[in-house]
Amino acid sequence: MPQAVNQARTEQGGEPSGGLERKPKPRYRSAFRILGGYIEPHRRTFALVVLCTVLAIAAELFQPYLVKVAIDDHLMAGDGGYGSIAAICFVYLGLSLAELVFTYIQNNLLQHAGQSIVARIRKQLFAHMTKLSMSYFDKTPSGSLITHVSSDTEAVNQFFGQVLLTLLRDGLTLVFILVMMFQLDATLGVYCLVLLPVIACIAIAFRSYMRATYQLARTRLSRLVAFVAENLAGMSLIQAFQQQHAQGERFQEQNTSYFQANVREIRTMVLFNRTFDLLSNLVIAFVVWVGGKAVLGASLEFGVLYAFITYIRQFFQPINAITQQWNTLQSATVAVNRIWSVLDTEPEIEDRPQAVRIERESVAGRIDFDRITFGYEGAEPIFRELDLRIRPGELIGVVGTTGAGKSSLMSLLARFYDVQAGAVRIDGRDIRDMAQADLHRIVGLVQQEPYLYAGSMIDNVRMFDASISREEVIRACELVGADQLIQRMEGGYDARLSERGSGLSAGERQLLSFARIIVFRPRILILDEATANLDSRTEQLIQQALEVVSEGRTTIVIAHRLSTIMNADRILVLSRGEIVESGTHAELMARKGYYEELVRHAHGEPELVTALYGAGRN
Ligand SMILES: Nc1ncnc2c1ncn2[C@@H]1O[C@H](COP(=O)(O)OP(=O)(O)OP(=O)(O)O)[C@@H](O)[C@H]1O
Predict the structure, then answer these.
(1) Separation between Cα atoms, residue 74 and residue 80, nearest integer Å
(2) Using N-to-C axis directions, what is the helix angle for 186-233 and 326-343, rounded to 10°?
(3) Which residue has the higher pLDDT, 196 or 528?
(4) Residue 2 Cα, ligand 1 centroid: separation in angstroms?
(5) Distance between CA atoms of residues 158 and 330, nearest Å
(6) Going by CA atoms, what residue is nearest to atom 7 of ligand 1?
(7) How high is the ipTM of this complex?
(8) How far apart (Å, rounded) are the C-alpha atoms in residues 106 and 58?
(9) ABC transporter domain: from which residue to which, for each copy (predicted)?
(10) Residue 578: CB within 6 Å of ligand 1?
């Protein structure tokens, strides 16, 4: 079972596979190409964003120039007209307002477009995950998939909200400042231009170090998330085995290593920022020295020096901002590539182009496992040329030791996996030739741990399918005997269940899943019986419910309690992927073989002790 396999891997201290622990390399070109495809439908918005950015920057950078005009052309020149100074003040105010308005519009437009792109990616990702085959989930820990939907899409969100905004705004600001500087004084402008490679070298040196610290922090965070997700999924196991302390210590190890990586990342960032501040102040001191001498020598106007110093302050700001976004750009690039590695994964099980549509009502329910061979990826085959024929309407009980292949056989019937040789047929038709949507309507599954969603009783029974009426759900619940149980709950059919239906017993959850079967009317029913010990009243209810749901449909019960299958038309005993015995309860008892021995080991009790079959996979 997937979770168990993943859990086992982690419990043994191994690295869970999947996208998380691989050292992800940012592949910028592919990431930008992918994001470009998403930006395309919003091109008008993005054009407007660029326009607003240019106007906002122009409004901002014209302000020091205005002060220069006020100083040199009016104050220093002795042109004491208050009117012209007042006019300059008004223009200054107008420019500030224009800067504010254009920045506001630019920000809003960009954020809106970015958010809608990210919402689209999230939707695509979730829809794609629901189409992936079970073999994919066997290999990929759920923690890493949760990271893709939450933090990875969030990183893409930051790309639009921060990186793109900074690149656009600060990149353009840099260009504009250089133009203004050269326009004011070419010599001072050249000095500043010479500084650019120095600044770039320092930034690049810091960058490569920051990349390593960033990568480390992300990898450790991913591990932490995967660890928490796995522990939440296996909480009952942790509590049952009193593993709280041990798991707490393992969590603390991961937590500390994430903390250390974070501190290192932040320390590097602070050092980088302060170095930049220092550099900026050194350059200002240099310009004050060179420019001050020129002003004293009357070869430079005072207003020009003032404007220059202001521009230098503004010059370092965008470089700093752009390099600060380096982390975010990296995380967004890695995130985009990771998201795409999921979206690029083709489901192993797909409808064939010539897949036929089948009306559920037209299915009689004959099942043939036709000399099938199957094994999980990378493992020895469980079934080798297994043959099994089930007649329409038959009630089949399947028993066998733990790991005999009972659940795997049923997974093949539901086509969660494809056989490697032979064929599984329903009414003589290979299930690989059927549309999966039809197959899953035909084959209904009641799992050992029926999954209940956060939602009302009604919605849980009809699986949020609004075309199934409330009355239908209530009738189904009455038929399987779940009605009384629901009426007893506060809120009745509208009572809200918490995630996974905690608060309900295993038996109660199974009754609800029987009601599901009634409303969805599959022609074939697979029931993986709950291993939990049920009280005799619930067991009786389930027994009656099974009689109701198996009526008129082929039913296969993977049994953990003998009482459930004693009246089955046929009982199959499975051992190591082979059917070693087959017959009715009476026939198998008379045969005094494997089945009889199992019953005898259960001390003649009408129940097979769970231990005989293992405690299940939970
Ligand atoms: N998703 C999986 N990936 C890899 N191996 C698996 C997977 N699921 C089951 N197996 C292996 O296949 C074999 C058959 O498992 P299966 O769950 O079908 O047995 P079972 O008879 O249903 O056992 P149980 O009574 O414990 O549920 C076991 O060895 C098991 O470890």
Answers:
(1) 6
(2) 50
(3) 528
(4) 9
(5) 11
(6) 1
(7) 0.96
(8) 14
(9) 367-601
(10) no
